[in-house]
Design brief:
Strand order of the largest sheet: 1-2-3-4-5-6-7-11
CATH architecture of one domain: Alpha-Beta Barrel
Distance between the termini: 67 Å
Number of strands: 31
Radius of gyration: 28 Å
Structural class: alpha/beta
CATH class of one domain: Alpha Beta
Amino acid sequence: MKIIPRRIELLSPAKDLACGIEAIKHGADAVYIGAPKFGARAAAGNSLEDIRQLCTYAHLFDVRIYVALNTILKEEELQQAEELIWQLYDAGVDALIVQDMGVTQLNLPPIPLHASTQTDNRTIEKVKFLEEKGFRQIVLARELSLSEIKQIAGQVTVPLEVFIHGALCVSYSGQCYLSAAIGGRSANRGECAQYCRLPYRMEDAEGKIISTSKHLLSLKDMNRSDYLEQLLDAGVSSFKIEGRLKDISYVKNITAYYRKKLDTILARRKEYKGASSGRSKISFEPIPEKSFNRGFTPFFLHERTADITSFDTPKFIGEYAGKVKEVRSDHLILVNSKIEIHNGDGFVYFDPKGDLQGFRVNRIEKDRLYFADKPSIVLGTVLYRNGDQLFDKQLSKETAERKLKLDILFTENNFGFSLEIKDETGASAVITEPLEKEVARKPQEENIQNQLLKLGNTIFESDHVHIQMAENWFIPSSLLSTMRRKVIEKLIANKRMRYQKEWVKPSVYKKEIPYFQHELTYLGNVSNSKACQFYKEAGVKTIANAFELKPVQDVPLMFTKHCLRYSFGWCPKHHKKQSPYKEPFFLVYKDTRLKLKFDCSACQMTVWETNK
């Protein structure tokens, strides 16, 4: 029995049209981008025209465009959302990433819906329910282990999407209300104020200080590049890179890095295949450590690990550069450096107070770093390079092109000559040009090859033209050039008409599938009548309003697998050790005071607001 290879998708972020195009050039099989409104990154919205242009370009390579429409919606926004969805469908979008279940009850075009990670997809019951309700792809919670992913994949057929790189929310996505409660800016509305990245003082119940000025809720960034094959074998079909607020150099570097990694695996694992067409030619060596990151962790992929946090700073430190041996008026001397430093590189270091400071060097002479403004730095300080001038300069230029392979056939006919081309996807075009035939004095094959292979400014490439002529007919170069241009234009037009979007009957989302719970608290994020209708029809008896509609007092504002007991070595389960401090613990930042509670049975920490 022939096995049909599973389509594997590298899914890259785009904050705008330019980033989206570069993601495709550097090897993305799909790109996700923000809509003009209702996206979970409010600062990353895009115009309908830009989204249309991105779809037009992407579909030439069978690359899919997903639009994030993943905030919860207020009642008065439902009509706007419905109109926007139709506009996005008309623009060519392949799927919508949604959080609000009210969207399923709208008058929808036949567009696939993907369940955002904001819908808190961390149980088999939740994923099976969403699959049965018609969702065509489901983004799993970042916290799931490899074994948990495998268990879920074994019981569903819907494609599963996981994050493999980028910033980590400390809370389960969709289950964080800290920003909404403290600052009135809801993460579920795309307005998170990132209280998790602030420096906190940690106190015990008696006011004893456990830690001060540390970013105790700040996590490192995810990097699962060493585990892609394990994730494939666990059942993952879509590998997602975080970063809809990241710059274009990040998109280039990280997309190219994972494209290279995945291609190596796909080349020897024939049961998997890439989800798009064309080949990306990268002109630089991608290095993820050189793009913004807070240090890397695979997170909970293999259960709990010791180092997932970024307590010292939520900023980009970069790579170890060496230690300061000597400081002079216009330069410093560095030792133990294992990197090649360039003029213009940027450096950071922690001062004696623990604050991150930075400076840029003008000139390098061996181990001497010359600066314009002398940094306040002491001997023995460790330097990190967070700005590689040479690498950044390289990424500021064109660093990739994506091409489709082309078969070219040039033949004669009764009226003149024909040019037929066919690309690797099977799309084809043919044109015929009349020309009175006359035998050439010189061989024509080389000129025909040269003229028809001038494909440099197109998305196609070929290394040979098949020529079928009974005689050595004279073919003007101008005619060959015209034929090449016309047939390429026709092929591109044919490809656009030929592209097949996935079609989904809107009624599929309204199937009566029972929900696995009979009661929804504020954690259900139900913020409109359509979402309420969705859950009532699924058999839910009691439905509370979303926190954003009716803030609830004395409830957890954050649920996280990150545990400060564990971080300090006081986990009763893993360390078999009790804390020397009296609980409850508190995190304090200015006027904000947060209480911590620990649930060892669920291996979970919760964060509560308190004024006590």
